[in-house]
Amino acid sequence: MMKTYLPQNGGLKAAPDAESAAAIAHGLWIDLIDPSAEERQSVNNALGMELPTRADMEEIEISSRLYSEDGALFMTALILANSGTEKPTADVVTFILAREKLITLRYIDPQPFRTFEARCGRSMIGANKAENALMALLDVVIDRLADILERAGSEIEGISHEIFDSTRGNQSMTSRDFQKILRALGRKHDLNSKIRDSLLSLARVLAFLAQAMDTTANKDVLAHVKTLTRDVQSLQDHSSYMGNKLSYLLDATLGLINIDQNNIIKIMSVAAMVFLPPTLIASVYGMNFKFMPELDWMGGYPMAVVLMLVSMVLPYLWFKRKGWL
């Protein structure tokens, strides 16, 4: 699918015939979403350039993701999508500045693009140049990452309270459902790692863009790039803090699981020690030897029962006094 936005009154307006050669020629922003071969070829022919393939976009080398060719800037970054679900994804999106146009090539539909398109429809985006449109789009992307980090931080605080809630100190491992907590921590760690990858790729894009803008002496765009770079740096610091906190919460959860398991093993060990003496007594008097002094004694059975009870109570009282129960 291809969408083309035309400049209008300092803003952007969606063109009704997005795939026509006239719309491509006069468009300021061309958005390609999982484009077909015909759509790619129409853009290539209209702009006289070759769009990168998906395989090119997924290359991990910096030289393959950030480069200049025939006066066009090609910048590929990881953009987060489906962050509100249990399976967030981070996929490559290529931003191209060429022929005074902004071309975005993507195979996902993240929320920032939908937000940016809605703002364009309401004439809330002031962009009379491709560079300004790119800055406005990156601004929305970074704002979205900040919102996701804020929401994830709040959810991590909730998990922390659940782990360290003093009112649940006497609950067992099963009743506190540590498996659910571990799964929640795993999902948040996965989300945070994708956020960090996205922020790292955006930081590289901004550094590359700052160098390119510096050569063209576009002071307004360069100032905006520096502002976005500081925002990304602050979000990276916050993401690192969240990663450290998640590691701490994971260690704490595993420690609490070990404590609960040790308590269970301790109870079983104490129970075994309590029942060991009466078992020994019962084993002695359960032997079938012909000559046993107590075999014909009238009080032998009561004596054995009392002896077994006493041998159970004494270890129990001893463990209780030592605080092992």
Structure overview:
It is a single chain. This protein has 325 residues and is of the alpha+beta class. The protein has 2 domains: 259 residues, Beta Polymerase, domain 2 (2-Layer Sandwich), CATH 3.30.460; 60 residues, Methane Monooxygenase Hydroxylase, Chain G, domain 1, CATH 1.20.58. It is 63% helix and 14% strand. It has 10 helices and 7 strands. A hairpin with a 7-residue loop joins strand 5 and strand 6. The two termini are 68 Å apart.
What's the gist of this structure?
With 325 residues, the chain is an alpha+beta fold. Helices cover 63% and strands 14% of the residues.
How many helical stretches? 10
Task: State the order of secondary-structure elements, H for helix, E for strand.
Answer: EEHEHHHEEEEHHHHHH
Can you tell me the CATH class of the largest domain? Alpha Beta
Low-pLDDT stretches are none
Assembly context of the chains: single chain
In this structure, how is the largest beta sheet organized? 7 strands, mixed
Class by SSE composition: alpha+beta
CATH architecture of the largest domain: 2-Layer Sandwich
- CATH homologous superfamily identity of the largest domain: CorA soluble domain-like
Give the distance, in angstroms, between the N- and C-terminal Cα atoms.
Answer: 68 Å
> What integer is the average pLDDT?
84
Strand content: 5-15%
Looking at the structure, the CATH topology of the largest domain is Beta Polymerase, domain 2
Principal-axes shape call? rod-shaped
Our Rg estimate from Cα atoms comes to 34 Å
* Spatial ordering of strands, largest sheet: 2-1-3-7-6-5-4
List the domain count as a whole number. 2
Tally of strands: 7
